[in-house]
Every structure is written in C-alpha cells, then in structure tokens.
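Lecture notes, unit on protein representations.

Consider one protein chain, 444 amino acids long.
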Amino acid sequence: MDPESLAHEVLVQDAFEALTAGMVAEAREAAVAAEAARPRGEVLGEALGQAAGGMARAGEVLGEVARVASGDLGGALGRVGALGGQVEASLFSIAAEAHQRGLHHEGGFSLVDWMAQAVPWADRVLLGRVATVAAACNLHRQNAPIAAAVSAGAFPVRRAAVICEALGKVRGVLDADQYGAYVDILTDAAANPDLSDLQLRRATERLLELVLDRPQRERAERAAHAQRGVAVLRRSGGMTRFVIDAPPGQAAMITGALTSRLAAPTPGPEGEPDERSATQRRFDAFVTVFSRGLSCPQGTPQIARATLFVTMDLDDLREDTPGHGVSLGGDLLSAAQVRQAACEAEVIPVILGGESQVLDLGRARRLASPEQVKALYLRDGGCTFPGCTVPAQWTIAHHDPWWSHGGATDLDKLALLCERHHTHVHQNDLRASIDATGVTWHLR
C-alpha cells in the first residue's frame, strides 16, 4: 500500500474509533441520565431486591455449610457481619427520614411501633435505639454529623445512642460552638474501632463531669430515677414480657445478678452440658433472686443476694469529687451512687456462735436462723454438691435427713445446696455425711 493510501486508512480508522468512543460516551451518559431520572424509590427497591436475591443464594449455599472449607468460614462470617452493619445503617436512614416526615404519626404510632409493623423480626431494643438517635438528630441540627456517620455505616446505632444521650444532658449548658465541638469529638470517638463500647461510655461520662456542675449532675440522676419503671406486655402462648427501665445504680445490681454464677452454664449430674440458652439462664437467675425474696417468710435470714464490685479511685469515694466508678458489668456509677451503695452494703462478721447465738435448734424451728446460715456460709463456702460452683449467697439450707423425715435444724444436719441441686437431691433421695469440716454426698 502506497503512503498516501496508508495515511488515508489511518485517518479513517481514527475517525471510526473517535466516532465509536463518542457513541459509547453518549450511551453511557444517556444511561446515567436515565438512571438518575428513575424514581428513587424504584431504584431503592431494585437494589434491595438484588441484595435479597444475593442473600437467598447465600442461604442456599449455607444449607450445605458442612461442605464449606474451614478456611472460608471465617471470611464468610466477616462478610455477614459487614452486611449486618449495612442493613442496620439502611434501617436507620429509612427510620430517620420517616421520623422527619412524621409518617408514624399518620397511624397514631410511635416510631418504634411503626417500624415494628414493617420489620416484626427486628429486636425492639435496636428499634428503640434507632428511634432515639433519629429523634435526637432530626430535632437538633447540630447532631447531623452523627446521623450521617450512622447512615454511612461508620459505627452502629448503639454507639450513636450513647453519645446522643450524653449530648442531650449537656445541650442546655453549652453554646452552639462548644456543643458542635463536642459533637465532632464524640462522633470521631464512636467511629474509632480501637475504642470499646465501655471506653466510649466512659468518655461520655467524663464529658458530663467536665461540663456539668454538682447540682446539674444531681438533677440528671434524679431525672434518671424518675424514668424508672416496668412495662408488662402480654404475648401469645401465655407468655409475658417485662421491660425494665432502671437507673444506673439499680441497673448495676440487676446486671450483677444476671451475670453471676447463677446465670452460668451448669453441667448436669452426670456432667452433661447445660442445654439452656443464655437468655434462659439469665431468666432462671432472675427468678431465683426474685423467688427467694417472695418465698422467705418473716424471720428468714436477710442476707445480701448479690455483691456489687465497683472500681474507682479511693479519693473519689471519700471526697466530694465528680469521679465515677465502674462495675464488673460495665455500668458507670457516680461517686454519690457508689457511696450510697457502700452505706447500704451488709457486712457479715467472721466471728460466729457466741453465747447469744444458738446454732443448734433441733426440731423447734424448721428454717435455719441467721447465725446458722452465716456459719454454713463459712463452713461450706457454696453449694456442696460435687462440681457445683454456685456461691454461698445463692444457696438454701437443706436438711439431711429431710425435715419431713424427722431431720433437725442443727448444723450437723444442714448442708448448702443451690436450687437446682436441691431439687436433684430430693428427686433422687440422696444422702450426705456432715461434720465440722464439711459435707460429703453419697452419689448413686
């Protein structure tokens, strides 16, 4: 091909490629414009439908999860967690917009009840937090960075609820610039993955200590106390749901009971694993505490049923300072609340059995006396059934032989048993040898 013809062909090829590129660009721009012109609700529904389709496909594979390689399970779990975060962020975005438009008011519902109709599977605790954060961000424009961060999936709703609650307490004592600065600080803290939930809560408590003076902190504590309550909700199947709103001090005590050894998995008599779920164990722990208070007649020893461990600076406890304490369960208590708990705590003396303390009552009395119970606590240290770790304060004094079989209320005829093993001992008619050194059960 001569040079002139070759040059002509190159020009034609360049022109064709330019025309093709222009047509592709125009087509792309047209597609983008068409997509932008589509109703946003239609696009949202299509996107969520595609996501649901992907999850349905994943569900099919998970039906054969036994065939998934072990190395793939961890990665899949991480992706499921990320998807869960995206779902929560989407839930919040929709709820916040619905709250802004007042859609829940159209049917006379709270935002939580309005959401629950659409997503009955959702945890109402989560829905409550979503509603709290949505209201805080919509009613106060300076909280907009929090809403934007949650919608973007920067941190979960539970962390947003913590900082919104703290900011609500200081809003009235800060000017706009100060308040905005604290919003930015706490939003960055909530988005920091290296900061635990407990550390975030401590940061918000520190904010309250710095900003609020003592009268304001006391008013905040009184306000929290005024919001205490128990809601009773009747459910199908004969079940009843109790929703408890507890101030920090009482919440710490309740948490202490629900996280005590009573709620820990307890193996069966033959060492079989505890088949109760975590929620069932917490329920059993709560009922044990509650039933002891109801079933103990007048004159039964009133011994503290839970111990509240609080970590705080001794100077804060002794002096009138704005310091706070932290319970084992992570509950934050003001110094005043810790001092009150310390005043109300019961001290059990070690010296027992003086002339005025009768430790053997024979058949004159069925229930063990306070002095006997203290002596049993000291001798047995907890449930005496082999392998049981339930502490002494969660046990009852069992008669051996049984009271109904002529047993006496004497120390050498009494043994500490938790509720579960007390039932097991009676069901299997088990006996024990008891002396000053302790209890030996004769298992069959």
